[in-house]
Amino acid sequence: MPTPTTRIETDSLGAVEIPAAAYWGAHTARALENFPISNTPISRHPRLVDALAIVKQAAARANRDLGALDSTKAGWIEQACVAVRRGDHHDQFVVDVIQGGAGTSTNMNANEVVANIALELAGRPLGDYATLNPIDDVNRSQSTNDVYPTAAKIAIALALEDLLVEHVALRAAFADKGREFHDVLKVGRTQLQDAVPMTLGQEFHGFATTLGEDEDRIREVLPLLREINLGATAIGTGITADPRYASTVRAHLTELLGEQYVTAGDLIEATSDTGVFMQMSGVLKRAAVKLSKICNDLRLLSSGPQAGLGEIVLPPRQAGSSIMPGKVNPVIPEVVNQIAFAVVGHDVTVTMAAEAGQLQLNAFEPVILHSILTNVAWLAAGCRTLREHCVEGIRANVDRLDSMVRTSVGVVTALTPYIGYAAASALAKAALLTGRDVADLVVEAGLMDRERVEMLTAPERLTNSTPITASVPVVGPETATIAIASPAEADSI
């Protein structure tokens, strides 16, 4: 007799035909029919699948402790959750990430998969819900409205740990380059105009510092994600759950995750509130925008190689043109820029979804969660790609940097406290008009002797890389004149 290829399950709407080997059931089948939106299943976010399994495992333990579920059923459910957390059956979490119903489809998908894995472990056929039921047993003492936001917070917290690993590694790569380039002089710029000298190492150290600040902001949000509404059930009143359930399930969740989770003080408010998601999204936007700014700088600094700044050389990753031979583009910073653009767009989505919540529930948490988890995953991938394929291989174009510093009039800024702003400005203009060295003009004008000029314009003073321990007397502008090549040039100054 041939093996059946389908099985029949029923829900409140009637009978549904299910693939015989599927671990999901009727409610998931309805969602697949209703929400063919993004073609992205929730399994695309493995941390969400893990989080759902953790919540169901903690619930089974709590229900067992309170006598709401017999120990045999609780044991089957827990074994099934462990299997999911191990990575088994992730492909069975099939509903679309974008769905109506405030996440009900996701919760039911999880209930059915856990139930059918448990039935298989118990030696029972898939769909034998008389033995173990997805709603009455796996979903006991729960509602989508407390399961989904709790799983969302856990998933985001787990994903953030992944992001922090990559973010820290990228910061370390920039810091390494800062040390490598610590004595490479260059011209700093403000508003894309030449400013004063600095070192390339200082610039890259600054990149590392700004990444470190964003890591601090991310870590500050993590405790907020650990305040949950599990036990609130439908709207925060805890209907259908034992009054002790909220504290009991929270204790098991803390044990399973190894982090202290707390039950919100006002479960009515917590069930409808999405403030933590907005804050999380804002922190991710901040990190993305600042990372994008760094990538803008890398593209500018590497522009050329002949007609641009050309101060650094990025590792060549691919041919840059189908028509211009030899062209190599900064493709790695460019892809990180695009990640940042997407993060900013998703932040707008999160904001609008949070604003659209009504009364005791926000129905739009699925798009909030998808947006945030996508941002976290893309940022982690972007940090890894930028580090491995770009930052670690950056080289300084030392000859070009040296040439620009030697001909820069920005060094005259170091003399301003000693000769005054007016004289320093005239010197800068004279140097630009004549193409002569600033130090020579200062000496010829009688403002300072060469030894003093060289001391004031030494690299360590220009870049503040060593402490300045002695002052230099101010030379009054009335004691010197600045030679200009011609009357016309003098008029222009």
TrEMBL record:
InterPro entries attached to this UniProt entry: Aspartate_Ammonia-Lyase (IPR051546), Fumarase/histidase_N (IPR024083), Fumarase_C_C (IPR018951), Fumarate_lyase_CS (IPR020557), Fumarate_lyase_fam (IPR000362), Fumarate_lyase_N (IPR022761), L-Aspartase-like (IPR008948)
Domain (Fumarate lyase N-terminal) ranges: 14-345
Among Pfam families, the record links this protein to: FumaraseC_C (PF10415), Lyase_1 (PF00206)
| Ranges of residues in domain Fumarase C C-terminal | 412-464
Q: Which UniProt keywords apply?
A: Lyase
Would the keyword Metal-binding be found if you checked this record's keyword annotation? no
Superkingdom, taxonomy of origin: Bacteria
What NCBIfam families does this protein's entry cite?
A: PRK12273.1
- What is the name of this protein? Aspartate ammonia-lyase
Natural source organism: Amnibacterium soli
- Name the gene: aspA
